[in-house]
Amino acid sequence: METAKILPNDIEAEKAVIGSMLIDNDSVVNAIDILKTEDFYRNDNKYIYEAILNLYNRGEPIDLITVKNELITMKKFEAVGGIELPPSEWETDDGSGQVRPGDPFPQQSGYGPADYRHLGRY
Q1: What is the three-class DSSP state of 47?
Q2: Residue 38, φ and ψ in degrees, nearest 5
Q3: pLDDT of 65-105, one tens digit each?
Q4: Which helix (H) or strand (E) holds 49?
Q5: What are the φ and ψ backbone dihedral angles of 83, each rounded to 5 degrees?
Q6: Which residues contact 92 (CB under 8 A, 6 or more apart)?
Q7: How far apart are CA 93 and CA 16, in angstroms?
Q8: CB atoms closer than 10 angstroms to residue 47
Q9: Residue 74: which of 21, 27, 119 has the closest Cα?
């Protein structure tokens, strides 16, 4: 029996990217130039990123509430388990919460939201 290979991934980097996008709209603009939905390893992160892209493409604000509502509209809210951390818990290495042009994909270092998959469970 052959064992399936696991693709290279960095879950903490995925969290950092999504966390920065939720607290800073400039990060959204910078990230969409670099990342595609399929760049995310975890399905929940793919769905959240897709929700953010949908909002961005419609010119709507991007925050916890609008992302939650978009996930509900997409019928993916339960699949991601929700998102519920206050913005103070999302930090990048420099504390800015921003993805900047030219930045490499955030390094695995524990920065970003510790666990943002419980949006809406207040």
Answers
A1: helix
A2: -70, -5
A3: 899 999 999 999 989 886 654 444 444 444 444 555 554 44
A4: helix 43-57
A5: -145, 130
A6: 16, 19, 20, 98, 106, 111, 112
A7: 10
A8: 21
A9: 119
Work out the burial of residue 21: count CB atoms within 10 Å of its CB; fewer than 13 is exposed, 13-18 middle, 19 or more buried: buried
Take residue 42 and report the two structure tokens written for it. Answer: 């975890």
| Burial of residue 59, with CB atoms counted within 10 A of its CB: 0-12 exposed, 13-18 middle, 19 or more buried | exposed
Average pLDDT of span 109-114: 39
The one-letter code for the residue type at 43 is: N
Distance CA 56, CA 89 (A): 23
